[in-house]
Design brief:
Blueprint (H helix, E strand, L loop, with lengths): L7 H12 L9 E4 L1 H11 L4 E4 L10 H7 L4 H10 L6 E3 L3 H12 L9 E6 L6 E4 L9 H19 L5 E5 L10 H11 L4 E6 L11 E3 L2 H28 L4 H14 L6 E5 L5 E4 L5 H16 L2 H17 L1
Parallel strand pairs: 1-2, 3-10, 5-8, 6-7, 6-8
Antiparallel strand pairs: 4-5, 4-9, 9-10
Helix pairs in contact: 1-2, 1-10, 3-5, 4-5, 6-7, 6-11
């Protein structure tokens, strides 16, 4: 029920996922107010199981208070369904902070993970790069960022087919000795970690395609994501405005539209919250039905690839290495 376009966009996304044969109707659970959802389903001719949840967490509510006071919210009820084994993955385009809080309190963390991280797929010249963390944890410790590198590497393998994901640590320069004490400590940990660590990466190189995973603090990652999103929207507006004044040849217009499609967040659906006991995907508040469809695709792939188990195993290897 959460999100700027909910619940219509969620039902639209389910319809698109069914049409594309990503899932079957019996594989979906919709959690929310039946009086809002039933008419939307009927209008689209869909039969999907509904789990009633009378309360809704608003986009601007305090995450901690929302989870504590709204135990019958769609977000909390859906998370409990995963925790109880009624479902294998959770998807939401609602309040990000509330999803993170509910995941920690109701679903639980993978053993050894102190702070889950949001891993945002970012388009590059050579395919998606996972930037982690982009907002779940703004008070990072070195071990948190070590875990981010390990978890995102496993997700890159499962979701995007990276055979040996290259990991970079975001810094203000590529030279040894650059960066604050936190970055220097993380750098030392990653050099001994069971990941393909390639060293420091600067902000302008995230989209170069040289890295499959870029690790950073949540505060920094969120700022990067928002700047990139705003810049993309600005560039799109400028080009569309120029095309309106000076219409290009049809082939040029189609080529530009295709380029913008590859840069659209909706093509990736949502960002996984890595470190929880089951796949959790967080969508943009303005998610469309197309974005929801791709969230469903990503969630199904995460379940099929058993990403949670692979992350748990790789973290156990790292823990044994650190103790030996």
């Amino acid at each position: 029920m959460g999100g700027d376009r909910a619940p219509a966009c969620v039902v639209d996304g389910c319809a698109l996922a069914l049409q594309a044969e990503i899932v079957r109707p019996e594989e979906l659970l919709l959690v929310g107010r039946p009086e809002d959802l039933q008419p939307l389903l009927a209008a689209r001719g869909l039969v999907i199981e509904l789990v009633p949840a009378p309360e809704v967490v608003g986009m601007d509510e305090s995450p901690a208070l929302a989870i504590r006071n709204k135990r019958q919210s769609s977000l909390a009820v859906a998370m409990k369904a995963v925790a109880e084994g009624r479902a294998q993955a959770f998807l939401s385009a609602g309040n990000t902070g509330a999803v993170v809080a509910a995941s920690t309190l109701l679903l639980g963390r993978i053993r050894g993970v102190a702070r889950p991280g949001i891993a945002a797929p970012v388009p590059t010249r050579r395919g998606p790069c996972i930037v982690i963390d982009v907002g779940a944890n703004i008070y990072c410790k070195p071990e948190h960022m070590l875990h981010y590198a390990i978890m995102a590497s496993e997700y890159a393998r499962a979701a995007f087919g990276a055979t040996d994901p290259k990991v970079g640590l975001l810094n203000i320069g590529e030279e040894e000795g650059k960066g604050n004490p936190l970055i220097q400590q993380v750098h030392a940990l990653l050099q001994a970690a069971p990941v393909n660590y390639e060293g420091f990466v600067e902000g302008q190189d995230i989209m170069s395609g040289a890295f499959d995973v870029v690790v950073c603090e949540g505060f920094v990652g969120n700022a990067i994501l928002k700047v990139a999103e705003g810049l993309g929207a600005f560039v799109s507006e400028q080009i569309r405005s120029a095309f309106a004044a000076h219409p290009p040849p049809p082939a040029t217009g189609k080529a530009v539209e295709e380029a913008f499609r590859r840069l659209d967040y909706a093509e990736y659906g949502g960002a996984p919250l890595l470190g929880t006991m089951a796949p959790v995907l967080i969508g943009h508040g303005r998610s469309t039905g197309h974005a929801i469809m791709n969230m469903i695709r990503a969630a199904r792939a995460a379940v099929a690839q058993d990403v949670t188990r692979h992350i748990e195993e790789r973290l156990a290897v790292a823990a044994r290495g650190a103790s030996s």
